[in-house]
Amino acid sequence: MRTYQAVSSRVHTMENSAISNFTERIELLTLLSRFQADFEVDKVQAAKRAESLHSLGFGLADSAHLAYAEVIADVFVTCDDKLIKKSQKEDIRVPVYNPIEFVMKEDLQ
């Protein structure tokens, strides 16, 4: 049996603070807090990679998410179809899936 660990970054926390609906913001913050774990990340390396991804046309937050994932994760799972398509066209160092693709790939039905 495989073990999975969801990871959230500080970017998630920053994005969450921009949600105007108080209830939604608190629910998401609670969910993220369950998965937040401290990982040693070479911040200089991640920042350089995020800058590189941003120069390829990724948004600031997406660049940070992907750079962080490349450093600590085996896969990147997102519901953002535009991000998935763009990631497939660029040299992203981790596979990028939507949740359904990931569940199917891992045979988690």
In words, what does this structure look like?
- With 109 residues, this protein is mainly alpha-helical.
- Helices cover 59% and strands 4% of the residues.
- The chain has 6 helices and 2 strands.
- The chain has helices at 10-17, 22-35, 43-55, 60-72, 81-89, 99-105; strands at 76-77, 96-97.
- A two-stranded parallel ribbon has the order 1-2.
- β1, α5 and β2 form a beta-alpha-beta unit.
- α1 packs antiparallel against α2 and α3 crosses α4 (60-72).
- It is globular and about 35 Å long.
- The relative contact order is 0.12.
Chain-wise SSE layout:
Elements: H1 10-17, H2 22-35, H3 43-55, H4 60-72, E1 76-77, H5 81-89, E2 96-97, H6 99-105
Parallel strand pairs: 1-2
Helix pairs in contact: 1-2, 3-4
What general form does the structure show?
globular
Q: What assembly state would you assign to the polypeptide chains in this entry?
A: single chain
Mean pLDDT: 89
Q: How would you sum up the major sheet? A: 2 strands, parallel
- Give the terminus-to-terminus CA distance: 13 Å
What is the number of beta strands?
A: 2
Strand order of the largest sheet: 1-2
Taking all Cα atoms into account, the compactness measure Rg is 14 Å
Order of helices and strands: HHHHEHEH
Based on secondary structure, the structural category is: mainly alpha
Query: Which spans of ≥5 residues are poorly predicted at pLDDT below 50?
Result: none
The count of helical stretches stands at 6
Helix percent reads: 55-70%
